[in-house]
Request: fold
Amino acid sequence: MGKLWDIASGQELHTIWHAGTISSVTFSPDGKTLATGSYDGTVRLWDVETGQLISIPPGPASEVFDIAFLPSGRMLVAGYRDGTVATLDIRIDLGRHLPGQQNARTHSVAASPDGGTLAAGFGNGLIKLWDVVTRDELRSFPAPGPVFSLAFSPDSSILASGGMGEKVMLWDPASGQMIRSLERKGCCVWAVTFSSDGHTLAALGDYCCAVNLWNVDNGQVMYTLKGPNVSLIYGIAYSQDGKMVAAGDDEGTVWLWDIK
Reply:
């Protein structure tokens, strides 16, 4: 089960349903469609205004771990438990599979804002990049451990990854070279995301119940946002204007911080 809220009033707008745990949610670039991925093996598209189900694009018969819209809003990329990476055309119910990673779960996927590159992070610590148009693999490179989260900077020049360990890694997607690592407390990083201006990176992990915000240019910690000590925080997002950070915990609560 998932819910949509009005941020200004805190009022619940809609409830959405899957047969299993909802593992990932993302809005289309125009904000009119919500996509959800679930352990029930489906990706579902919802009308944001009405809360009604639009369609269920066909995909692999495996648990969905992560989803992301391409900048055009016409396609989704999805990562699956069985190591598959798939692009789903939401207009014509047609999907294409990319050569993922056998015997390794696809924990995270991301699409570059310039529309040129798809990225996937796997349980064996590998990060793979593909060309959006040709679907050719561009390069692959190893992270320090299993990759649980990926995010491109708004200008597509940096790829951030989080996973097992206390570091958030910043990569140059054009070369696969590491730019720098960002240190934090905890044994893994569940989610990473950039602010809309690309100057700040937010990351969260388990057991520390906190969100760290870094200055991307110098790697310094700017803020540490504390959550409830009784909950583990798993998901994070910036508001479009960069003034708020939202995070969800394992007890079904969404937390909002004003960072301006």
